[in-house]
Amino acid sequence: MRLRRSYGASVASMVGDPDVLAYAGAVVANGGTVSTARYPILTAFVGAEKAAGTWALTDDYWGLWAENAAQALTSLKQRRLGTAVNSPTFTPDRGYAGDGSTSYIDTVFNPSLHAVAMTPDSVRLVAYERTYVGGSGCTAGVNSTANRALSIRSAGASMAANGTAATFSVSLPSVGMIVSARRGPLVSDQVGFKNAISQVRSVDASAVGTSLPLLPIFVHAVNNSGSPALFRATQVGFLAVGAALSDAQELAQYNNVQAWASSVGAQV
């Protein structure tokens, strides 16, 4: 396959994975580019996800360790353009960092409107932190009424999976890929992972939600009933949201994400 240096108006004439091509086209429409070096990296990631069965179970992905801001803020699967609010710091090939007080990313992904694989009893939020800034704040999440919270908070120790928060004994520092998920209707069905390793849940959630959160997911803060709260100044390179995965699929996706990170020099 012969490629141009970057994908602009010629995207429609390229051949390859249709999902990657559609993403590249969306990035260009949003004012960015996808280089000939990045295209095969994205193709390898999407192909590996499809082979593992995790693509179908993941509603959307954000490769914040992108080449440019438009590429980072354009979600990979549903191709939604997020918003960087109050100037979080973007570093190419590394990700976005909040300032811990006002800046965050609005993914515009609203679980109640945009979920496909995710259900109230099968939910999953993933964040890949690249820097450790202590245990305060929320890496990513949303908290709406009726126990509908989905979040990763305080270095992974407090996580919600469409319910109130449970406590996990996540090993520190909290760099790497952290997962908050629920695999059934009970509070005891909540699970947490760090780099595909199951984490001990020390305190169950007190309640679960019977429908999905009604507001968009934020990064570097939690969307608390429409307002950002619990700001966190960490650098985040990757985010994903969807349905719960099996242990084997958790490992497969971690390996796929880590391969993507390693390809751009963002692995931790």
What does this 3D model show about the protein?
With 268 residues, the chain is α+β, with helices and mostly antiparallel strands. It has a domain at 59-245: Sandwich (Jelly Rolls). The strands form 3 sheets. Strands 1, 3, 4, 6, 11, 12, 13 and 18 form an 8-stranded antiparallel beta sheet that branches. A 7-stranded mixed beta sheet has the order 14-10-9-8-7-16-17, with no helix packed on it. Helix 2 (38-52) packs antiparallel against helix 6. The model is unreliable at 1-13 (pLDDT under 50). It contains 6 helices and 18 strands.
Task: Write out key terms for the chains shown.
268 residues; alpha+beta; Jelly Rolls; 8-stranded antiparallel beta sheet; 18 strands; disordered N terminus
The amount of beta strand, in percent, is 25-35%
CATH architecture of the domain at 59-245: Sandwich
- What is the helix fraction of residues, given as a range? 10-25%
Continuous helix count: 6
Radius of gyration computed on alpha carbons = 17 Å
Low-pLDDT parts are: 1-13
Query: Could you give a short account of the major beta sheet?
Result: 8 strands, antiparallel
Mean pLDDT: 92
Distance between the termini: 32 Å
Total number of strands:
18
Fold topology:
Blueprint: H1 18-29, H2 38-52, H3 54-57, E1 58-63, H4 69-73, E2 83-85, E3 89-91, E4 95-97, E5 104-106, H5 111-114, E6 123-129, E7 138-144, E8 148-153, E9 158-161, E10 166-168, E11 176-182, E12 190-194, E13 197-198, E14 201-203, E15 218-219, E16 222-224, E17 227-229, E18 235-242, H6 247-264
Parallel strand pairs: 7-16
Antiparallel strand pairs: 1-18, 2-5, 3-4, 4-18, 5-15, 6-11, 6-18, 7-8, 8-9, 9-10, 10-14, 11-12, 12-13, 16-17
Helix pairs in contact: 2-6
